[in-house]
Every structure is written in structure tokens, then in C-alpha cells.
Design brief:
14% of the residues lie in helices and 29% in strands. The protein has 224 residues and is α/β, with parallel strands linked by helices.
Length: 224
């Protein structure tokens, strides 16, 4: 669809909902962009599986210290009070329920909250990473994704057809067209782009979109 948010705009919208004082893990790739849009004055502590707590925004090009990277091998900066620890300790934090939020990408999200985000079919080499730990260790799991695949197929579906990362783990999805909660095994629409009619949004969603009160307009900055 021509009318849709960019990845940066989706990341901005997701960043607005991260609460002050939260401990957050951002998935490799697109979700990492969320750290760029942390609202001013809000304190968020970011965690990375390779053993850093309290990293900041990416350094300016040319100022990278390649001894300081996140799980996606991207250069990071450190905030005051940041700490380093063993990989096993990092996963103990995840598995022990010490993270308030994990934000991941997705190939598919089912209406009951199932997530598939690590493998498509059987030809590629599996690369699950820490996702299976994150979706069951974090207190809350959100997804950022385009609403459809490159071929136009829905990513929000009745049930996943790709190998699962986690069962009934996702509670909110931020897409290029809408913000959708998962409640009682249903997609509940919270916000949508104002220029997209409801029937057009439903047509590119692979399961029924429910409403619970007024649906808000999905408004993001145009210059990011």
C-alpha cells in the first residue's frame, strides 16, 4: 500500500508507549531504531543479550568503539551507570522476569498472540537467537512490523503457518497501518492511519479486526 508508515515512524510510535523507568530489550534490526526516539525526560534502561545494561544511542559515524556493540553487532554508546556482565548472567535477567518489555520484529503474529519471527519455511539456516527466551521471560512483548509482506500477504493472521517463536506471548502490535492490541485471542484495533478506510485495513489483515470503543488516529511526525 502507498499510504503507510516508514520503519522509523513505526519505531517512533512504539517508543511513545515505553514507560518511565522501564527495562527494555530491543530485537535485532528494525526494533533497535526505537532507542533513537526515546521521549525527552523519560528514563529507559536498554538491555542487550550479549551483556550490556544501560546503553544509549548509536555513536556518530567515525566515533564508534567496536568493543562496544549490541547483540546485532551495531556500535553503541553507554549511559552513566551502565554495566557489563557475562552472557549467562544476561540470559538469567531475561529468564528471571527482570525485563519489563521486549520489542521484536515478526514474520507473522496470530490473533491469539502467537509469534513467528525466526524462520520462513525449511530452506534457510535457523537463526532464533535469544527470541524464544525473550518472549517468555519479559513481562510484556510487543511487535513492530510492516502490516503486510513484500508480496502483499497479511502478517497478522488467524494462526501462524511459520515455525513459532512463542505461544500467546504478544500483547501489542505496531504496524505500518495501525496499532493493534491482542486481547482474549482477538485483534483489537486501537489506532489506524486516518486516510485508510476500515474496510481497506480489514482487507489486508488475515483475521477479524475488532473494536472496543473509539479507534484513534495514528499520527506520527512526517520528518523522521
Amino acid at each position: 500500500m502507498e499510504d503507510k508508515l516508514s520503519n522509523a515512524q513505526i519505531a517512533w510510535r512504539a517508543a511513545q508507549d515505553i514507560g518511565d523507568g522501564s527495562y527494555v530489550n530491543l530485537g535485532i534490526g528494525f526494533p533497535e531504531m526505537i532507542a533513537r526516539f526515546q521521549p525527552e525526560g523519560r528514563n529507559v534502561t536498554y538491555h542487550t543479550e550479549n551483556g550490556v545494561l544501560g546503553f544509549g544511542k548509536a555513536p556518530a559515524e567515525g566515533d564508534e568503539d567496536w568493543d562496544l556493540i549490541n547483540a546485532g553487532k551495531k556500535a553503541i554508546t553507554l549511559k552513566p551507570g551502565a554495566s557489563f556482565f557475562h552472557h549467562a548472567d544476561s540470559f538469567a535477567m531475561v529468564r528471571g522476569g527482570h525485563l519489563d518489555l521486549a520489542v521484536l520484529g515478526a514474520y507473522q503474529v496470530a490473533q491469539n498472540g502467537d509469534l513467528a519471527n525466526w524462520r520462513v519455511g525449511s530452506k534457510s539456516v535457523p537463526a532464533v537467537g535469544g527470541a524464544m527466551d525473550l518472549v517468555h521471560g519479559a513481562k510484556r512483548v510487543a511487535v513492530v512490523t510492516d502490516h503486510v509482506t513484500r508480496d502483499g500477504a497479511p502478517k497478522l493472521v488467524e494462526s501462524c503457518t511459520f515455525p513459532l517463536t512463542g505461544l500467546a506471548c504478544v500483547t501489542r502490535v505496531y504496524t505500518s497501518l495501525a496499532v493493534i492490541d491482542i486481547m482474549d485471542a482477538k485483534f483489537v484495533l486501537r489506532e489506524k492511519l486516518p486516510q485508510i478506510p476500515m474496510d481497506a485495513l480489514q482487507a489486508v489483515t488475515g483475521a477479524v479486526l475488532h473494536t472496543d470503543g473509539e479507534v484513534g488516529d495514528l499520527i506520527v511526525p512526517a520528518d523522521i
